[in-house]
Amino acid sequence: MDIISKTAKVFAERQIRGSVSDYKKIINSAKDQVDDIDLQTDKIKFLNVILEVNNRVYDRHKPNCTDPETCQINFAHEYIQYFLAQELSRLGVPLNEDNFTVEEKQNSDSKLDQILKDMEELKTGHRIIYDDLVNEMNELKELYFLGKKKWYQMFAGKCIDMTVSGIISETISKEIISSIKPAFKHLTGN
Q1: Are residues 109 and 170 located together in one domain of the fold?
Q2: How far apart are CA 4 and CA 9, in angstroms?
């Protein structure tokens, strides 16, 4: 996990911690933190991690909420969610309805790890090629905020790019894509 993800996770755990007490303070703190980050991609990553934590805590609260319409906890989570979505939109990242769930991220991560394990044979005698493949797969693990459709398009594009540039063979590329083919069928309806 990179420093931005770690910082965002610590921020979210400290600020949201299973419950939201002062949403305005959380938003102001998030704005201050984002202002200290220079790279746009890091800002996006930071905000996305906070959004995920907020949504996870909110999802745990909803089933136990006795009065959803007037609940201050609901209002706080929704306000934080609105702010984060607005900030992400300003950075050119509209919130997607097809966001990955935690389980889907873990499943995709395990598939990417399995691909790397299967490609371990490239390592012997082809260290540079294997290292390039590891870097590409690890980069994909940081791009879940794109939403499922765009993420899978990015995945396919990386496979094609690695094939064209000679990092992997066409056969290996087909094997990699077939390992996540069920997800592609779900997105395209085929």
Answers
A1: yes
A2: 8
